[in-house]
Specification:
The protein has 8 helices and no strands. The longest helix is centred in the last third of the chain and has 29 residues. With 183 residues, it is an all-alpha fold. The protein folds into 2 domains: 85 residues, RNA polymerase sigma factor, region 2, helix turn helix motif (Rna Polymerase Sigma Factor, Chain: A); 75 residues, Orthogonal Bundle (Arc Repressor Mutant, subunit A). The N and C termini lie far apart (64 Å).
């Protein structure tokens, strides 16, 4: 079914492309939102990727690879939006975590918030690795295709990104102790 839609869209059928877009826009936006951490930038990146898809659709060689191709366009659009946003000055506040017992359900929420903050601290290309591989569950080779990188490069960058996140989380965990005057 999707191959038929892709082939029709490649032939210039706007209705077929609209159907493809309806089937992929929510996932594309969610992916962009995770990579960029900002809903407005994610909307812009998603729209930019869909426009690029429509304009470049005739150049798609394998209609069965439409989703992977669109994902790659989306990641590139996210990088462009992140570069634009970096040029703007933004002030961001941080919420200090409250030390609660691990068995407390609120602690699980706090842990999730800390993880989200660690992800937000990453550069967009690092966030893209985390989002594609862990949030979307893409295997390593599909993550590499989406990013346009060799698999070995993706593996090493993912390893370094996880190390950086771990260091950020550990530093954030030590911060309340240092602020309270603990040794």
């Amino acid at each position: 079914m999707q191959r038929d839609l892709v082939e029709r869209a490649m032939g210039g059928d706007r209705d077929a492309f609209a159907e493809l877009q309806r089937g992929s826009i929510d996932k594309a936006y969610a992916t962009a939102r995770l990579i960029l951490g900002d809903s407005d930038l994610a909307q812009d990146a998603t729209q930019e990727a869909l426009i690029a898809a429509w304009r470049g659709l005739r150049g798609l060689r394998d209609p069965d690879r439409f989703e992977a191709w669109l994902r790659r366009l989306l990641v590139s659009a996210c990088y462009r939006e992140a570069r634009k946003a970096r040029r703007r000055w933004r002030a961001e506040g941080r919420v200090r975590p409250i030390d609660l017992a691990v068995t407390d359900p609120a602690r699980l929420t706090a842990d999730r918030d800390e993880l989200d903050q660690a992800i937000e601290a990453l550069a967009p290309d690092q966030r893209a690795l985390i989002v594609l591989h862990y949030y979307l569950g893409l295997p390593m080779h599909e993550t590499a295709i989406a990013l346009g990188l060799p698999v070995g490069t993706v593996k090493s960058r993912l390893h370094r990104t996880k190390q950086q996140m771990r260091a950020t989380l550990e530093a954030d965990a030590r911060r309340p102790l240092l602020e309270a005057g603990a040794p």
